[in-house]
Amino acid sequence: GDSAGGNLTAALCQRLAEKEEHPLTSPCAQILIYPVLQMADFNLPSYQQNHSVPVLFRDRMVFYYLHYLNGDTSVAEDVLEGNHVPVDLKLKYRKWLSPDRLPTECKARGFHPKVMNSHDGEVYDIIKTGLEPGISPLLAEDAIIRKMPPAFILT
Q1: Choosing a second label site near 135 at 20 to 30 A (CA), which of 2, 13, 28, 71?
Q2: How confident is the model over 90-128, as pLDDT tens digits?
Q3: Phi-psi bin for 150: left (phi > 0), alpha (psi -120 to 50), beta?
Q4: Tally of CB atoms within 10 A around 52
Q5: Of 91, 55, 86, 84, nearest to 70 (Cα)?
Q6: Residues 38, 109 contacting (CB under 8 angstroms)
C-alpha cells in the first residue's frame, strides 16, 4: 500500500498477527510506499524538513489524519504543536519516534528538536483513538510487531 494504503496494510497485518486463528491467509510480506504510520508526532525531522513539499504539506497530513480519525479538524493546530499527546505517552513513544534513533544526516536539513510540552486534555480526548495501533500502526507493542510479516518500506 502507498500513503494511507500503507497505513491500512500495516494495520491489517497487525490485526491478523493479533489473532491466533482467522479465516484469511496471512500475508507473507508488506510493501509500504511512503506509509503514514503514526499521528503521535508531526515534528519529526522528515515532517519539519518537508513541511512545504507538495503534495502532502505537513499541515495537510494532520488535516487528512484528523479526517480519517473522526473529522474534527478544530484541533489541527494543537496536533501540529504536539499538544495532543500526554507526556507519559510521549516518553513511551520515544522508543519508536525519537529523532535520536536516526542517523545524523537525516537531521541535517533544518531540523529543530521540539521541547516536550504538556498536553491539552480536551484535545487528547478528541484524538486518543488515533494513537491506537489500528490507526497508528507504528505504535504497536513489540510482541505484535514480531508476529508480523517482514516489511519493505520505501520513503
Answers
A1: 28
A2: 999 998 899 988 888 888 888 888 887 889 999 999 999
A3: beta
A4: 8
A5: 84
A6: no
Residues 1 and 9: their CA atoms lie apart, in Å, by 6
Q: How many CB atoms lie within 10 A of CB 64?
A: 16
Q: Which residue has the cell 473522526?
A: 70
In angstroms, rounded to a whole number, what is the distance separating the alpha carbons of residues 90 and 84?
A: 10
Q: Kindly state the cell numbers that stand for 135.
A: 490507526
Separation of alpha carbons 135 and 148, rounded Å:
16
Count other Cβ atoms within 10 Å, centred on residue 127.
Answer: 21
DSSP string, the chain: -BTHHHHHHHHHHHHHHH-S--SSPPPS-EEEES----SS-S-SHHHHHTTT-SSS-HHHHHHHHHHHHTS-GGGHHHHHHTTTS-HHHHHHHHHHH-GGGS-GGGGTTT--PPPP----HHHHHHHGGGGSTTT-GGGS-HHHHTTSPPEEEE-
Contact by Cβ (8 Å): 148, 106: no
pTM score over 0.85: yes
